[in-house]
Amino acid sequence: MNHGEPYPIGDAARRSGLSVSAVRFYADAGVVEPTYLSEAGHRLYDIATIARLELVRTLRELDTDLGEIRRLLEGGTTLHGLLTTHLEIVERQERTLRARRAVLRTLIRQGGGTAQAVLMHKLVSMTDEERERIVDDFWNDVGAGLDVPEGFVDRLRTVRPVLPADPTAAQLEAWIELADLVRDPAFRDAVRTYLHETYSTHPGERMASSPVQEFIYESGAALVEEVLAAHRAGESPRSPRSQRVVTRFLEAAVGLSDTPLTPEARDRMADAFRRIPDLQREMAEEDGPEDPHGRYLSLVAVVNGTADDLDELPYVWIAEAMRTPTGG
After folding, report:
1. Topology of 7-77 in CATH?
2. Domain coordinates of the chain in residue numbers?
3. What CA–CA distance (Å, rounded) separates 216 from 159?
4. At a CB cut-off of 8 Å and minimum separation 6, what does 209 contact?
5. Contact at 8 Å (CB) between 211 and 229?
6. Cα–Cα nearest to 236, from 176, 320, 170
7. pLDDT, tens digit, for every residue of 38-96?
């Protein structure tokens, strides 16, 4: 059959992937009318009109409104504009469904009732400001009258959840659990007790002091990033670049206690880093409960998408770089 010859409605339906009744419906609705009517009154369609029918079918499968389709075909909008708008709608729906899935999964796991379901829906629907307020309230309560070195709680509160604009289901579930925990007076008491018992006496008090905290959160963190940059660049741990950045880190670390960087100190730190993966595995295998502040940190890491960062640190590579150079 010549492509210039019009097709009867049955062929038009088959070629466009629609049913005959659907082709009739779109014609009657003024969306895609037949190209011709035969002398007997039969509807006939040319290739261009069949292509329009196929486009209508595709857009309807995407749940596009008939009015929008009609405006497109009448030239009131462009296909690109229509698809862009529809993509935004689909993405909003996807985020909504992801949030609902997180709520349902958490409810099933916790066995919550109607009140809990309402609370969880509220938690995932919060604005950034509302989430910030919940975390601030938590740290204000935990830090009130806490006997730890000055400024320590302010450092701790900087590690906080930041839910991304397009969170995964895991991030939403972690946020629901975290928001539920930080609002719980019992959890706040547990964190307060843990921080007091851990950091109000030696050696924790030393770890919570301002110089150590500044090293952990500021200068030390920047130096660690330099070390990791050398590793990511494929440097050998014994290369001049690796040795320079690791030596700067070690000098800053031992400088906290006003001690020199001796070969013995380098080797002690190298041994400590080499043992970290084994210690992490041992801790993961222990049956004992996780400390409450550790639980807060782990949930924040999931929400922020940084949960795997520590696990991915090249401890063996760092340990080899820390080891005293031959002849050092």
Report:
1. Multidrug-efflux Transporter Regulator; Chain: A; Domain 2 (1.10.1660)
2. 7-77, 94-199, 209-322
3. 12
4. 149
5. no
6. 320
7. 888 899 999 888 988 988 888 888 778 888 888 888 887 777 777 777 777 777 777 66
